[in-house]
Amino acid sequence: MPAVTETLETVQSVTEGGYKWGFETDIEMEFAPKGLNEDIVRFISAKKNEPAWLLEWRLKAFAMWKKMEEPSWAAVSYPKIDYQDAYYYAAPTQKVKPKSLDEVDPELLKTYAKLGIPLKEQAILAGVEGAGDTPADGGRMPIAVDAVFDSVSVATSYKERLAKDGIIFCAISEAVQEHPELVRQYLGTVVPQADNYFAALNSAVFTDGSFVYIPKGVRCPMELSTYFRINAKSTGQFERTLIIADEGSTVSYLEGCTAPQRDENQLHAAVVELVALDDATIKYSTVQNWYPGDAEGRGGIYNFVTKRADCRGARSKVSWTQVETGSAITWKYPSCILRGDDSVGEFYSVAITNNRQQADTGTKMFHIGKNTRSTIVSKGISAGRGQNTYRGLVKISPKAAGARNFTQCDSLLIGDECGAHTVPYIENRCMSAKVEHEATTSRIAEDQLFYCRQRGLSEEDAVGLIVNGFCREVLKELPMEFAVEAQKLLQISLEGSVG
Amino acid sequence: MLKIENLHATVDGKQILKGLTLEIAPGEIHAIMGPNGSGKSTLSYVLAGREGYEVTEGSVTYKGQDLLAMEPEERAVAGVFLAFQAPVELPGVGNANFLRTALNAVRRAKGESEVDAIQFLKLARARMKVLNMPDDMLKRPVNVGFSGGEKKRNEMLQMAMLSPTLALLDETDSGLDIDALKMVADTVNSLRGPTFSALVITHYQRLLNHIVPDHVHVLSAGRIIRSGGPELAQELEATGYAASVAAA
Ligand SMILES: Nc1ncnc2c1ncn2[C@@H]1O[C@H](COP(=O)(O)OP(=O)(O)O)[C@@H](O)[C@H]1O
Ligand SMILES: [Mg+2]
């Protein structure tokens, strides 16, 4: 099939030139000394002015991490990581909080402008006090943003507006200061310190991330989002996010991320914990766009992430939606512990690997409560020499009477040097539970490309259209504005894959 | 308008077209009939530029340009439209989105402004009414789960919206009931005019009762063995292809 051969050739010719977020901001930074030891853990904790209990918590995690082994079961391969050859703390030097746009470091401003954060938000993002309550342009529904730049949150918008509803949305370092009781009550209760190697590392050295608390019965009036930016060289980003939705509350949260284009690999090991109490709903969406490395596999982010939701309350619901387009290696399994009776877990995923990218991603659904339901829809797209693995676990405990799971895993291959793998584990120990699994693997057919081209579409647009069609069920779960972004991103990720 | 000279083409190394010559003037409708496997679909794919259909000899000139040197999408936006014998399914791709993308590609090439979603819906709905298509067919994914008749209607909707200068209809009438057949004919007739030419591939005289062609050709083993007026179609309907093939 000549069309496919051509597709294949051009997929290989993709270079890092397609990554539009690969610039570096030249800004005065403060670093902790390179390497990882107890002193570094203490340094981070002191920088954040943390209470003693949290330092103890970190040190305990660090002690456990030292005894743990890096996991090797995922279908990804990479050279051994030297944990001593990285910085664990890097933050822009900021003497006082700027009061007006003029006082904000222009480099920081430029960074957000280049990343395409709208101007209004840009003012807010850069930490200008008072700008946080300005209505968004054109009456559009505003999005509250927490901007994390390397190891620190540089600003959070709409905080005051949200506080009117009793909603807390701030950097987790700030929550530790302002709401220590909440942080202490929930931190590590979904992902314990020793949960896994990367979670233990994160627990020891996490620097910033977002904290959200939605009070009882409150429907969060706007989308909340965090934008993660890795900027500094040889620096790992270890963010920690904690979201608590109290009884009967609802929140939709989004995260986005980018990093400069570099020959070195940088580590991103995040932990996200979600807690949903009775009748609460959390919708968590991710558009992951870390630097993927170049065509030969040089550079790119190692994205080792632990995300888990605890549906603690009856009738609670958590929905994970992820569009994974970036990173050299992705290792993440956003999961749901369906503890509450009638609780619902959902996982919608698009993972795309091009060139030498590797993704091992999926979900775990633990059915514990009665009549718990879960839905898994995974769409893997492999191009170039990309390797894409769906790994999922559906575990149904004997007590989960009436539990239901439906899993759909579809893989799309572009070219014949890439790979798609599906590894679904099912452990059903309940007679009355029902588990369904469907899987397909397909290729973009020559007749589909020809049909589109005969109607006047370029080959590149045709591939974009077909890929977006393949991902439709997942993309429609994203909040409107993100869905448009994600569609463009999918196309960019395959840029040069044809024509 | 279209000038095909001594066209030879192979598929997978197999010689299918063996010296086909045909000229279509602006505004003319030509019908091609012929036994199964004679190369009718191959001809339409070669004209549309499908990969794998290799021209080994001969030339095709379209509006004075070397058609064979153009990419499939360049031919499409230059006004060549192929109504597929077997329209292709595009899972998850909305019919409206697909058709608007195609329409805007053609409009851009003509130097016309693109249509937005609202303008598009207006245009499409008006056409669909004529074609007796329900509105919800715009929302469904392209050809997925469409019945045979619906797929052909959808091809006619696309053709009407893109208003080509050269339409290639590959057995669009096959498998259609008499009402659907009339719909195909009406669509072609509505486009008929000095700037619209068509090559209508069919097995049946009955379509040609509704689309009266200017010329009828019989294709056999990759060559045109007979040409005539509309009466040739009637003769073939009565006697079959065998007599013509034997006489050739
Ligand atoms: N992809 C292909 N590979 C090999 N032979 C083919 C291919 N496509 C068509 N053919 C052959 O070419 C000949 C003409 O086919 P086609 O153009 O489809 O005929 P028609 O449309 O007149 O029925 C047939 O013998 C058919 O088997
Ligand atoms: Mg045919």
From TrEMBL, chain A:
InterPro entries: Fe-S_cluster_assembly_SufBD, SUF_FeS_clus_asmbl_SufB, SUF_FeS_clus_asmbl_SufBD_core, SUF_FeS_clus_asmbl_SufBD_sf, SufBD_N. Signal peptide: none annotated. It comes from the Bacteria. One of its GO terms (biological process) is iron-sulfur cluster assembly. Residues 156-220 form the SUF system FeS cluster assembly SufBD N-terminal domain. Pfam families: SUFBD_core, SufBD_N. PANTHER family: FES CLUSTER ASSEMBLY PROTEIN SUF, UPF0051 PROTEIN ABCI8, CHLOROPLASTIC-RELATED. Belongs to the iron-sulfur cluster assembly SufBD family. This is Fe-S cluster assembly protein SufB. The lineage of its organism: Bacteria, Pseudomonadati, Pseudomonadota, Alphaproteobacteria, Acetobacterales.
Automatic annotation (TrEMBL), chain B:
InterPro entries: AAA+_ATPase (IPR003593), ABC_transporter-like_ATP-bd (IPR003439), ABC_transporter-like_CS (IPR017871), FeS-cluster_ATPase_SufC (IPR010230), P-loop_NTPase (IPR027417). Keywords: ATP-binding, Nucleotide-binding. It comes from the Bacteria. CDD domains: ABC_FeS_Assembly. GO terms for molecular function: ATP binding; ATP hydrolysis activity. Residues 2-246 form the ABC transporter domain. The keyword Phosphoprotein does not apply. The keyword ATP-binding applies. Belongs to the ABC transporter superfamily. Ycf16 family. This is Fe-S cluster assembly ATP-binding protein. It comes from Falsiroseomonas stagni DSM 19981. The lineage of its organism: Bacteria, Pseudomonadati, Pseudomonadota, Alphaproteobacteria, Acetobacterales.
